[in-house]
Amino acid sequence: MGSITLQQVNKKFGEVNVIPSIDLQVEEGEFVVFVGPSGCGKSTLLRLIAGLEDVTSGAVLIDGKDATRLPPAKRQLSMVFQSYALYPHMSVRANIAFPLKMAGMPKAEIDAKVADAAETLNLTDYLDRKPRQLSGGQRQRVAIGRAIVRQPSAFLFDEPLSNLDAALRVNMRLEISELHQQLKATMIYVTHDQVEAMTMADKIVVLNKGQVEQVGSPLDLYRSPANLFVAGFIGSPRMNFIRGAAAAAFGVETIGVRPEHMTILSEGGTWQGTVGVTEHLGSDTFLHVHTEDMGTLTVRAGGYVGFKPGDRVGITPDADRIHKFDGQGKAVK
Amino acid sequence: MSTYHSRAAGRLMVAPSVVLLFLWMIVPLGLTIYFSFLHYNLLMPGTETWTGFLNYSYFLTDPAFFTAIVNTLLIVVGVLIITIVGGILLALLLDQPMFGQGILRILVISPFFVMPTVAALVWKNMFMNPVSGLLAFLQKSMGFQPHDWLASTPLLAIIIIVAWQWLPFATLILLTALQSLDEEQREAAEMDGAGPVYRFIYIVMPHLGRAVTVVILIQTIFLLSVFAEILVTTNGGPGTDSTNLAYLVYAQALLQYDVGGASAGGIVAVILANIVAIFLMRMIGKTLEA
Amino acid sequence: MARRVTRTRKWAVTIIAWAIGILIFFPILWTFLTSFKTEGEAVAMPPSLLLFDWTLDNYREVQQRSDYFMHFLNSVTISLGSTVIGLIIAVPAAWAMAFQPTKRTKDLLMWMLSTKMMPAVGVLVPIYLIFRDTGLLDSRLGLTIILTLIDLPIIIWMLYTYFKEIPTEILEAARMDGASLYNEIVHVLTPMAVPGIASTLLLNVILAWNEAFWTLNLTAAQAAPLTAFIASYSSPEGLFYAKLSAASTMAIAPILILGWFSQKQLVRGLTFGAVK
Predicted ipTM? Predict the structure, then answer.
């Protein structure tokens, strides 16, 4: 239970071709993350799977059965919304019970399931409160509770953490990952935050302008990005892209080196530059080095380095980890 | 949230309103246009004849028509000025910390709920009557000759009555807008060295712009067709001194039984209202989008 | 943020504001007081504010002379009837426009509002003739129909504004939770929309209650609501301020009280949410 297949799915809003054509397979029990910049079509894609929008052409298969024309209520999917979308006039208990009530489940059974879900999510003490009396994190948990009680074929998450503050976001990220391990259910998760994608996903789908740029495990995408877009999007800080003579030395249009794959030296090195801003994070130091013909390069150094702004330094890239891209931006092996 | 099914349901749900409003607009208006080209008197049924633009030329050359247009605009502009200026001042006052603000709000808003016929009659008899009205009493007790409002300044009297009814509305809306002004903005302006007057001009006024637009739109809709206040106070007189377009058409149709002439007048009123409407709709379209 | 306000200043503001407030309210207050005077006291110079023999005779006489309760019932029927019918037609339309917007929704709304800009005199003659020929003249049904039509655009706009504030995601959540359209409307939408519908109802009853163009032109005796009932007191058959005051008080009191309760919603409703 819980595989989802998209076949040549196409979506137009009027004249605007939001998603030209996407084929995608989500396996049962997989945690798939759709990631991309805002406006890349990731939320639309999720809503097409949910049935909240019609596909213009193509097919959506849930558990091998064609669900393209099925209304959302009949698709056996649960969704957690960015705004949580809790019913403000219902108590937490009624919110969580709502899908079960809609399914016509007997009252005793509903109560047991709601109690169960509340237990899992630490909401037992709040069952009789209204959503507006809860904190952001608690609301988020209620939304998740409402999604899990029904035991759907798959869970859909639409940027569920973007309204939380940074500390809570890290917590909830862990909770959702744990939930996935516990339920072993299929989950599709939309985010613009590549950190969330990297930490949670079994499989990442990178989207850009309605097209799939690359599909793969987090480490696949990190180690061998298929093109410039994925290379720039995955990894933080961003990969340095270098054109011109330095790239030509490798016989390509552009080369990319991640900040963590360079060594900084007080003299010598492959490339030379002047230290600009240095950012000390304690565990790491990021140095922004201005070079003459390659722009500014970001370099990660260890916990503490003695370089100060204005110092001349040399940089040596890790030869095995230089990414090469051709004129179209495609990776060259 | 738009799928094939939900869009179809949506169209079905909008249809009754659209059809009704369309009929409401097109059928009577069509008939009015048709009548406006007829010689048609209610007292002589069956004698309708086609007269072309004769009704229009009569109506448009009637000196009462020009007076009515001017009066209509004077009422709209006069009441708008009084209510907006008064409303801003009153709203600024009511926005200050004071005792019993809640009850005061209720007092101030009250005239808005008074039906036009009551407002007009009360003002006409108990306040503006030159013999036994309160205003006359005040003037006399201060040693002045009592002023006969409805006879010597009928239009002003009507503007005062109508403004009294609409001042609360403007005040309430402007006050609500004022209270939504971000306190930090005011404080920032104060830090930047702006005194009360500059704060009012550069912070408060722009913030009120949207509310003022809305007040103008809503009031204009109602003020263009002020009718009951004229009917029960002056009957448009003396002469045509306080006749506006709405009253003129009414008089033509239901007092002189001239359906053709009244219809021509009605069409003129529609055209006039449309000119104002186009202007206003642009304004509110922009305001509501923002 | 709490700005320091001196006590003197607060008192000064209070006095000025209350003076102006009472001045604005005074015609209503004066009408109310006069309604308890005898006709002689009502025109006495100098007038007395409170020190007179309070009497209820005027109310009794107004009821006898012009049957206040019949007109009151007419007003209730017409204003409530037109508002409820208007709501029944407008609720689905507003829902559709708020939750299923198309490219034309905005134009449609503007067009609806523009029908409100059409001056009543432009269509007075044909409506009068149609009513005369169909027997709707001076009937409650006829007036209810007209008021429904003239209030419909405003009702739709008000509801649309209120519905727009219900996040679409909540309706989508209901769909994802397996709710049918019926359940979505009954269990999720309606409970959330009740406050908006209620204030729309309230505001439109007030507007319809005070409507004084069609009610004056299309009624005579039978269906005349309070607006027309009062207008019959405009004929100058002797001075009778006390009775006029009693009639006026009775005509405005119900809606004045309703209005006091709805003044908060009034702003949002009548400005279509543009001012909050």
Answer: 0.86
